[in-house]
Prior knowledge:
11 helices; 30% helix; hydrolase; alpha/beta; metal ion binding; five-stranded mixed β-sheet; Collagenase (Catalytic Domain); Archaemetzincin-2-like isoform X1
Amino acid sequence: MPKTRKRSVVRKIPYARGFKNPKLKTSISAIGDLTQRPTNSNFIPKHYSQEGFSLIPEPTSVDDWLAQYNETGDTYQQFISGCPWFSTRRQPYLKQTFEPTGATILAKYPQGKIYLVPLGNFPVGKSPDISSLMEFTNHFFCCPVKVMSTLHLEFTKNNKVILVRPDSVKIQLTSRFHVKTGSFQLKVDSVLKELKELIPDDALCLIGFTMADLYETTPDLFVAGMAGGRNRVGVFSFCRYNPSVSFSQEHWYQLVEDVVSIREEEFKRIMLLRSCRLMVHEISHLFGLGHCIWFSCIMNGAGHLEEDFKQPMFLCPVDLRKLQSLFGFDVVSRYKRLGAFFRNNKMKEEESWIENRIVKIC
């Protein structure tokens, strides 16, 4: 998850100590043995061809993810062996109907849904369309998605932030406020704590999202979000994903919006694209997918926003196989639904990628 302090850019950046950049042969082997058919019926080996996928990019900044973190990555087989969603025991905290012999998440938890909950205001023309976020999430995971009622934020006279729960109970969130600029940030742990109390009985996971800025620790400029897999909750902010906003690399409270720098249609496209990418990346973590080191992939880690914005909208073959094993979807049908979404939202580059991918694997 992007988490920013001051960045600097230099030439020839080394990987984090201990990280071993996988070669193509190693990345291909991470896809797993395609002759071993899983129990769900939609598995077709050629859908996981690595053709057209590039290896993960080398770091170009000291703040890039792989320049900071020694990621080990999970192969497909390691994921299958360790992911608790495949267990014949009910996941902790889940209260819904459980079928231990089910081959996929929705076979094990037939009532299961992904829940999304907006936090605070989402001004028209300055934030992503919530119904479009729900639609993309549904197409990406091939899982029922439901949007909960908005959790409102109120501000006290002494600049404290109050979360108003659906039962009208008011909770003070931990936050910080800058008097001169009027900027504020919510502490991410404080929000996660309250979201845990709101998980519906039929939820596989619950994701809160907001246009308010977030932080984790005092030195942070910001943090885009955080997901807690064990508790099945996550929260993230679209505040700095706004293409009209520029911000300081020194002070968290210095954000400037240039409302005339980008056309309305282009703003809508970029804002939705970035928000959808962040949304499904975080939800994937809640379903057990870690950061990908095998190919260029939507599950690659990001050390800062510039790196985040350059990442693709698609799962590499390793992570596609992981997700398909979890949800049992038909890969081509899923691609077609995603392609229609990209076409309807004028995301031409992504639509073209989908079309080319379908040709390659069919």
